[in-house]
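Handout, section 3.2

Students often ask what a structure token actually looks like in practice. Rather than define it abstractly, here is a full record for Cilia- and flagella-associated protein 206. The first block is the sequence as you would receive it.
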Amino acid sequence: MSRAQAESVIKNIIREIAQECANKGQAVSETLVAFMVKAVVLDPDNEFNVDRTLTKDDVQKLIMLCVDRLLDSQSPSLDTVKMQVYFDMNYTSRADFLEEHRRVLDQRLQPVIREITDSRARTRDELEGLYRRIVSCVLLRSGLGSPTDIAVVREATAALQSVFPQTELGTFMSLTKRDKERQLNELTLIVTGIRLFNRECGKGGEGIDDLPAILSEAVPATTQNVQTEIQNTTKLAFRYTALIEDVVANKKSLEGLNLNLVKEALINTRQHEAFLSILLNDVVGCAQQVEALESQFSARMEALKNTVQSKTAVPTAQVYPQFITLAHLWTGFQDEMVLLSVLSNILASLEPFTKIHREVLTEEVLQPYIDGLEIRTDDQRLADSSSDDDRIDGKEIDNPKIELLFHETTKNFDKLPIQYRGFCGWSLVVYDRLLIPSNPGIGVLRYKDNYYAFCDKQAAYEFSNAPESYINGVAEAAKKSPELIQLLELHTQFASITPYAQGKEPGRMIEAPVTKCDSGTQTDTHFMETNIVKSYEWNEWELRRKALKLANLRTKITHSVQTNLSNFRRDNDSQVYLPKNVETQTKRESSTNVPKPSTFVAGLRGCNSTKTTMNVVDLTLDVDQT
């Protein structure tokens, strides 16, 4: 059977279980059914052999057991599993929440945006209709008022006309689709900023809720609700813990009360507490984000007022970026509202998963069993085991594979990943699934790169004597109560068990996979010295050929001749003497100088007589006179 066929088989089993539950009036998800199938197979009491192929009877038994567990209306264990499945399917990180919200919003706006970008308006009426659609798109994307409110539409239209007059529609129509979408987004931000500024100045703001004021009231209220729920849940957990600890330690019997039910209720409350702590951290993060947004929004609004200062005209390069920043900050307020709403819904949805043990193990039922017991809180347990005498003594640990770590000797001690989500592994085994918080302050044991903390030093000593026994004991406890796998984060211990859909043999629900690892070998080129004779020849015919060649060479003579033309092939060289540079020099230098002739012709002009009398005057100077 191929892998696709194997997946089809397991899906049919899951579908059959879900259908059987639906026929009996209980609707269950396939995710819950798949988890329950794995839990039933893991439970050793059900005697499913993972190394044996399931027969038809085994499949029917598996279906029957799963249906019985899923229809058990008085099982806190089933409620815990449902709670885990619900939380995993509905909770995600803050960034993923907001990203999904924006994706859904953009998806809903796509028809409106597509109608604008694909428009081919030509007439005046068509252009006016396009402009109205742009106003509606701006309102829907900004979330500031309803596009069916006339006052809101008028205010948004006035703000849009100051930025994007209707005469600019021609230019808008000539843009590409991507540029149109980009301009619509920019117009939305600018119009949002203008409306927020007008609201601050008391000149508008129709349909705009005061989100900072709403959040300033909603965040503390949600925080108080979560903290109250945590207090109520931990109060029940402390009672269940004290009761189980007393019964197991003193070997008492509870008449009229099922101890296993109390243990399942304790696991349910601890899981509920863990989820509530996650929600509380997110709500606290919301409060911090809202506080930061309020300060930034006030500062930006004040800067914008200083820029405008009742001016009739302000350069767009100065105010548009500030309007866009205001819009982004307001979007942050809207995101916090969405996130707070989601967290509140999850908080309300978790409460029904704790209803069974609250109804069965009421205060009237528990009071006779807890009278006279000391009910200690987690903080009291930590305080009782935080003295210097309660610290783990390294001399008492004989196991060389275990390393003892303390806060003062270990860097980033508070960030160590403590196993079992901080619960004591020794208590889980000795008290059979009893969840007692550990105290890392007394010391942490490091074993095989895992870190273990305990409720007291005696538990640490016993764990160090046989760590594998206690680790396997926790795994066995998780098989009895599969909800512990997620609560204690035991996924790595159960990684050797894979679903049937990933197996190769048909009919096998789970199987141990083949362990794989990367390995390499290296061999020397010649790790043993060898004497290789290069002239050795094993072929007799080759030896005969070489012998004949040598015999023939003995009768051969080398002749050489030279022709008349062969002498030109010689390399001839010639050498000459290069000419020398010769210079001469006289004993002294001498020079001669001659007079420069100079004459003047007089009488050519300026005479009063009609007859010209020309005289040549010699003006040459002697050499001695120069």
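Discussion prompt for tutorial groups: The CA atoms of residues 117 and 175 lie 9 Å apart. How would you have guessed this from the sequence alone?
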